[in-house]
Amino acid sequence: MSAPNPQDDQAYVVRSDCAGVTTLTLNRPQQFNSLSQAMIAALQEQLDELADDPLVRVVVIAGAGKAFCAGHDLKEMRASRNKAFMQQLFGQCARMMMTLTRIPQPVIARVHGIATAAGCQLVSMCDLAVAADVAR
User: Fold this and answer.
1) Ranges of each domain in the chain
2) At what angle do helices 118-125 and 83-102 cross, to 10 degrees?
């Protein structure tokens, strides 16, 4: 029953569980929770683990800091402009997005800030989005 403490945890995704609700908090607030390869892999790993957990009844995806998710990590993409890297990145991202639709639990996006590009796609792949009045 622990609450996430993203500021103290260096994990890309912080998991907290409470009464059947698992919250996965994207935890790179300085990068606006952008979807780097490491962020996508961490989210995929968490989704794979909880999909088979009968104690998890609902999954909430949230973002640490002032953004929900700014989309792909453009610095990472600019640093690796070759075709193989891009194909691998987009394949990895597509797999993670499809996992959101395939796990048995409903997935809720808790959007409190910006959700742009692939971050907006992340919201759209969830079963439900709950947005704060300051969400963009």
Assistant:
1) 13-131
2) 20
Tell me the pTM: 0.91
What is the pLDDT at residue 9?
A: 53
Residue 24 CB contacts under 8 Å (≥ 6 apart), including other chains: 13, 14, 15, 43, 46, 47, 59, 60, 61, 62
How many CB atoms within 10 Å of residue 110?
A: 19
pLDDT in tens, 31-56: 999 999 999 999 999 999 999 999 99
Q: What region does 101 belong to: left with phi over 0, alpha with psi -120 to 50, or beta?
A: alpha
Q: Which residue has the tokens 């959007």?
A: 111
Distance CA 124, CA 68 (A): 13
**Residues 13-131, CATH architecture:** Alpha-Beta Complex (3.90)
What would the mean pLDDT of 109-135 be, rounded to a whole number? 97
